[in-house]
Amino acid sequence: IGLGTMGRPIARNIRQAGFDVTVFDLNPQAVAYLVGLGATAAERPSEVAMGADLVISVLPDGPDVLQTMLGEEGVYHAARDGMIHADFSTV
C-alpha cells in the first residue's frame, strides 16, 4: 500500500521475486505499472489484507497510515489471525 518513491520499487522487487502481490494506491498510474508486472489491483486497502500473510505500507504521513489501517475500509477490517503489517512509512 503506497506505490511512491519507496513503495513502488519494494512492490516491484517482491513481484519480480515471484511472490503474489496485491497493490493499492490513490494514483492509478502507479497501480497500473505494478499490474503490468503481474500484480493484482485492490480497490480499497481492506482488499490488500484479504488472505495476505504480510501487508506492507509506505505512506507519506501518520494520519494516512491510521486511516489506511483503521479507517472504514482499512486493512485491519479484513486482517486474518497471523497477518503481519510492516509499516515503512517515513513518518
Give the topology.
Blueprint: H1 7-16, E1 22-23, H2 28-36, E2 40-41, H3 45-49, E3 54-57, H4 62-70, E4 84-87
Parallel strand pairs: 1-2, 3-4
Give structural notes.
The protein has helices spanning 7-16, 28-36, 45-49, 62-70; strands at residues 22-23, 40-41, 54-57, 84-87. The protein is α/β, with parallel strands linked by helices and 91 residues long. It has a two-stranded parallel ribbon. It has a two-stranded parallel ribbon with strand order 3-4. Strand 1, helix 2 (28-36) and strand 2 (40-41) form a beta-alpha-beta unit. The mean pLDDT is 96.
Task: Write down how many β-strands occur, each being a DSSP E stretch of 2 or more residues.
Answer: 4
Gap from first CA to last CA: 15 Å
The number of helices is: 4
List segments where confidence is low: pLDDT < 50 over at least 5 consecutive residues.
Answer: none
List keywords for this structure.
about 90 residues; alpha/beta; two-stranded parallel sheet; 4 helices; 4 strands; about 35% helix; about 15% strand; globular
Give a nutshell description of this structure.
The chain is an alpha/beta fold and 91 residues long. It has helices at residues 7-16, 28-36, 45-49, 62-70; strands at residues 22-23, 40-41, 54-57, 84-87.
